[in-house]
Amino acid sequence: MNEIIVKKLLEIEEKFQVKILYAIESGSRAWGFPSKDSDYDIRFIYIHQPEWYLSIDPQGIGGKRDVIEEPINDLLDISGWEITKALRLFRKNNPPLLEWLKSDILYYQKYSFVDNIRSLESKVFYPNAMLHHYLNMAKNNYREYLQGEQVKIKKYFYVLRPLLACNWIEKYNMTPPIRFQELLEDIIPDSELKNEVEHLLKRKLQGDELDIESRVEVINNYIEHEIKRIEKYVKSLNVELKDPTKLLDELFRHTLNEVWN
User: In sequence order, what are the beta bridge partners of 40?
Assistant: First the structure.
């Protein structure tokens, strides 16, 4: 599959006359709990030729789209962000982008861009933005899928993962790892709760159909407690962040010169 994905990425470079800097797997495969029918969620960052940037119309306006999205099929979901869009999102601590930088399923990497942007993460990290993102994700999924006596039991992972990510940010003041198992091992001690989560995870990875089943009370109780606790914690934070725009401008110019010089 890797060869097919890389071939597709090279076709995108040719079709759009860009250079891809970095391409990884996102979504459930990267998180560590894919279903047996999960597709491949390939995400990438790319850069145009210098002439594309030297015009009176800014990126993202009119014909100058700052995303590339290939038609989705049953196997592949491929999309990418243009480098300046990615850097603006990085400045805002966009969690999906930061997760891309943490993915350990790498399909393609060229030039120094990714190493350089990772080196700047501590200078742009802003816990409030990430905590709000993960907390809202957990709350929305919990409200939609896990309220009744009978629930979509696989949705527990889509509530637990963002809650564990919030705990990681609170504990370490840094971007959480992408893999669910790493979060689980670090955040939840050995207990009935951990045993129940590990049991569900084992079933999911074995390909069991986790559809509608009775809710797991110990997990629901944990979720409800953590949502309330993290809400209070977020409100207590008061973090100031220096503007990293100059550093990100320099990274963009360096990358443009490195790729096309």
Answer: 76
Q: Which amino acid is at 140?
A: N
Q: What is the pLDDT of residues 224-238, one digit of tens each?
A: 999 999 999 999 998
C-alpha distances in Å from residue 25, one per residue of 1, 32, 44, 160:
12, 11, 9, 20
255 vs 233: CA distance, rounded Å: 38
Cβ-Cβ contacts under 8 Å for 163 (sequence gap 6 or more): 134, 135, 138, 223, 226, 227, 230
Q: What is the pLDDT of residues 73-122, one digit of tens each?
A: 888 999 999 999 999 999 999 999 999 999 999 999 999 999 999 999 98
pTM listed for this prediction: 0.92
Tell me the pLDDT tens digit for each residue of 47-69.
999 999 998 887 777 778 999 99
Contacts of 43 (CB under 8 A, 6+ apart): 23, 24, 25, 26, 79, 80, 81, 100
- R_g over Cα of the chain: 20
Would you say 230 and 170 are in contact if contact means Cβ atoms under 8 Å apart?
A: yes
Question: Hey, what are 53's tokens?
Answer: 């940037």
Q: Which residue has the tokens 């459930």?
A: 28
**Residue whose tokens read 């890797």:** 2
- DSSP letter (8 states) at residue 177: P
